[in-house]
# Entry
Amino acid sequence: MKKNIIFLGAPGAGKGTFAALLVEKKALLHISTGDIFRREIKNGTELGKKAKNYVESGGLVPDEIVADMVAKRLSEPDCKEGFILDGFPRTLNQAELLKKTGVRIDAVISFDANDDLLIKRLTARIMCRQCNENYNKLFSPPAKEGICDKCGGELYQRKDDSLETANSRLALYHKETAPLIDFYKKGKILFSLNSAREKGEVMKDLLKLIE
Ligand code: AMP
# Structure
């Protein structure tokens, strides 16, 4: 399946979770711009230094920096078999920059959930330092507190998942990212999924959409 898919949605809507589940079933590559930034920050690279303050305060990394990084990543040979782009584009300008690369996009899947649920999910979210697996203290806790079921890594709460920063990220989503829904609707490649439901149900619909 050589499909190039964008996962669109507010923070906490489930983009990362469903991308990880989908990758287990389909031969697709999961490219998360947030994961790339967190890795670069951890490794103290030049890109990480440029992105650190934006990422930790819940702001957006400037469009040119993100768009260059994504264009480079998408030109690598492993992307030829299809990919899920999770967390990019996040502004209309980024969508235009992506279009300019000439990379074909087959579908944009919008994950929809209300703000109250998103805040609940974000502030209870914990993540593995090693493999980036997501858990949620309320909805999907690990078997052993603080330890990743998958790789045994340490679980932590992202700095930007504090209540204050989560609220400002959501506001930023509504202002900068939500207009992309109309942008891709016009291109007739937008599909919406209600992600406020139980994981299995969302996954069933997602698989139907993709096949
Ligand atoms: P995420 O893991 O998708 O929630 O992303 C974490 C953080 O990385 C965001 O809050 C931004 O600071 C940064 N980031 C990720 N993707 C983008 C993007 N497309 N444009 C700007 N900043 C981004």
